[in-house]
Structure formats: C-alpha cells, structure tokens
Specification:
Elements: E1 9-11, E2 16-21, E3 43-47, H1 65-79, E4 84-89, H2 91-102, E5 107-113, H3 125-136, H4 138-148, H5 155-167, H6 171-181, E6 197-202, H7 210-215, H8 217-220, E7 224-229, H9 236-239, H10 241-252
Parallel strand pairs: 2-3, 2-4, 4-5, 5-6, 6-7
Antiparallel strand pairs: 1-3
Helix pairs in contact: 1-2, 3-4, 4-5
Length: 253
Amino acid sequence: MTANLTPAQLVGNGPIRIIAVTGWMGDHRLFEPFLPLIDKEHHSFAFLDARGYGSRIKEDGPYTVEQIASDIIACADKLGWDRFHVIGHSMAGMSAQRLAIDIPKRLVSAILLAPVPASGAKIDDQRRQLLLAAVREPDARKRLININTGGLRSDEWLDRLRDTSLAGTRPDVLEAYMASWTGKGFADEIQNVSVPIRVIVGEKDPGAVPDRLRETIGAWFPDFELQVLYGCGHYPMWEEPAVFAKALSATLA
C-alpha cells in the first residue's frame, strides 16, 4: 500500500508546530486523553501514526525506527512545516534522535517521551519473552501494560488501554518494529548535535530509567534536559494527561 503521510489527527492552528508519534504498543489514540488540554491558539499538533498502525494499519513497511523518522520528515513537508518540534514516544523517541542527527536545522526541539536510546533497548530474556507474548496474547499485553504503569491501575483501566492497543496494531508489524528498536541502533553517529533534547519520563516506568537515560542520551547530546513525572509510568499522556500537558507546555515554552 502506498505511504499515507497525512496525520491521523490535526489539532490546533497556532504558530508552534509539533509532530507527535506514539511508541510500540499503540497508535495516535494513546494521545486522546491529552487532546482537550491542547492550547489550540498557540499550538498546531499533527499526530502521525507509524506505518502499520492505526490510520496506516494496512500500509507496507519497512517497519523500522529509521522509516518512522523519514515519514515524519515527509509529513512535515506535506504540511509545509519547515521548522517544527517532534515528540517521539518510546520507540519513536529513538526516531526523534535520528531526526536530530539528520535534520538538525529543521528541529526546534526533540521531545523524547519515555524514550528508547539511539543505541537501541537492551532487554533481558525475561523481558523479551513478555514482549513477544504481548504481541499476540491479549492477557500478556495487559500484564505488560500493568508492569509499565507501576501496577497502580484498575482492571477496567488496563482493559481500556489494552483494547486501544489491540485496535491500533498488527502482530507482524509489532514483531518487525521490536527487531528495530532492540537492534544495534545508531548512537555512534551522534556528533556535535545542537538540537535541544528534552526527555520526559514517568517515575513508575521500569524501562525508561532516568539515570540510564542521563548516561546515554544525556551524554550524547549537549543541550539535554530531563524531567520526571510523578504518578506516571510509560504512557503519561494516557495515565495523567493534565500532568503531561503541564510538563509539555513548559518544555515547549
């Protein structure tokens, strides 16, 4: 299927332009609880699905973090946006780092939400087995979401996020992307990148540990800041949208 680079959703018509892409477990709907909190006069948000997800669920690959980065550029071109911020969640945070290398003059900033470092995620066998099970088994996916959000949420809440995840993804695509974001990455290509890198993580996220991100992303990019959101895990925009909106507004300002 031919690439569709039209965002799944456009919100706002302000001068601050942001392209946002969600991570491995879901499409643009992961941002839905945050949408009513957007300042539409100051911000223009373009929520782009990765290939094989959501509005692009039937689209051919490649299903890689590099292709996500290329599609973000093509989306910006289609929108006529010469300069913009990018929000990359989880695996798409890796894509945002790719953009900081490839098009530094076009990025106002790269906002990495619960990101995978440019070196790729290093996961142990137990974690890998859970991730692979979550690709095809709804119960395993719910268990993974529960772990990623600190075990704080109700069954009903977990079911809702799991069902949103299932509706927006394909098992074969999830497997392909997992091979990409757990691969060798491209950290060795980062040299003197001046793009502001802003990392936002939830305190309950077991995969995005602040100290580890400071040692990797913080060491690679000189203009680096990290903020921790309390009461949140891997999906702050879904878990605590008001907390996420406040942090993001401060970052964009």
